[in-house]
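FORM 12-B: Structure-to-Sequence Request
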């Protein structure tokens, strides 16, 4: 239902309607080609057959991490009756962007595969990043120091969830508090690709977080994750959409205000901020629909209309 290819037919348009040029155009074209290639591969082979079945914890699909760097030590988002707060306990800062999302997908998938709380990250950062489809570059502006920094932020964070429900005229309030990592060891040198391995890098998940990861996780196609990895908003919307339609029985309208409340981290509560979020959300949804063509979603002036659809990974 969503006209995903419209931007290609009208030229390289930015979310605000202006045309991109130069390096931005080339990068956008490469991204589009990567997404189209992933979509073709997914049409020809299932995630299970391609050994590309991944998972994301349900609690982190309902409410999401920041898209951009955030000041302070706490970040809060709300989705309906559920509120999620992330607190920086280790002093490294709050996790943000695409990297922590990719790490969480890997952690959830690995925890389910091994059934263990202690996860081996690999004897080099490059091997771990390769599993997530990322290039491995050293130097001050390379991917290694940024990836390691986000791992330290993520492993040093605590998550609190709160929810409210009205039952027969009574208000029920509940919540859960947990730390992500019980302990972790990172042996990677931030500024260079390691040549000599000093130790085995690992993270040991807290018991409670491990239980949250493996309890009713959301199945995802890792080829879609790799195709969307440059956009934290697209990653969020992909995981959200396949989970939401798994229990959706009738069409549901979601206002732009509600959509921004759940996914619009860092956008100003102004007409300009709301317009910017709406444009970026439409752009992200276009990409999601390419890799997830079963999704029936319609963009309207007043919000998004979501229709009952097949989940991206067929239900067992």
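FORM 12-B RESPONSE
SEQUENCE OUT:
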């Amino acid at each position: 239902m969503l006209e995903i290819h419209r931007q290609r037919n009208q030229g390289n348009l930015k979310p605000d309607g202006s045309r991109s040029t130069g390096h931005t155009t080339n990068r956008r074209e490469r991204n589009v080609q990567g997404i189209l290639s992933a979509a073709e591969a997914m049409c020809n082979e299932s995630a299970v057959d391609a050994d590309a079945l991944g998972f994301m914890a349900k609690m982190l699909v309902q409410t999401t991490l920041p898209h951009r760097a955030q000041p302070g030590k706490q970040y809060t988002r709300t989705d309906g009756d559920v509120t999620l707060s992330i607190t920086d306990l280790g002093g490294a800062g709050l996790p943000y962007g695409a990297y922590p999302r990719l790490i969480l997908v890997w952690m959830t998938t690995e925890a389910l595969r091994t059934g263990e709380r202690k996860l081996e990250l690999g004897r080099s950062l490059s091997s771990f990043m390769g599993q997530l489809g990322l290039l491995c570059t050293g130097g001050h502006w390379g991917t290694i120091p940024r990836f390691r920094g986000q791992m330290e932020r993520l492993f040093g964070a605590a998550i609190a969830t709160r929810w409210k429900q009205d039952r027969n005229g009574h208000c029920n309030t509940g919540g859960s508090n947990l730390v992500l990592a019980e302990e972790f060891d990172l042996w990677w040198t931030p500024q260079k690709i390691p040549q000599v391995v000093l130790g085995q890098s690992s993270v040991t998940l807290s018991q409670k977080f491990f239980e949250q990861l493996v309890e009713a996780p959301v199945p995802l196609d890792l080829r879609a994750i790799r195709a969307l990895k440059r956009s934290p908003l697209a990653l969020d919307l992909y995981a959200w959409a396949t989970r939401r339609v798994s229990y959706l029985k009738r069409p549901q309208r979601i206002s732009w205000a509600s959509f921004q409340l759940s996914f619009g981290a860092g956008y100003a509560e102004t007409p300009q901020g709301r317009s910017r979020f709406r444009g970026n959300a439409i752009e992200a949804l276009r990409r999601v629909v390419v890799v997830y063509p079963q999704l029936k979603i319609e963009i309207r002036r007043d919000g998004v209309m979501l229709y009952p659809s097949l989940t991206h990974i067929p239900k067992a």
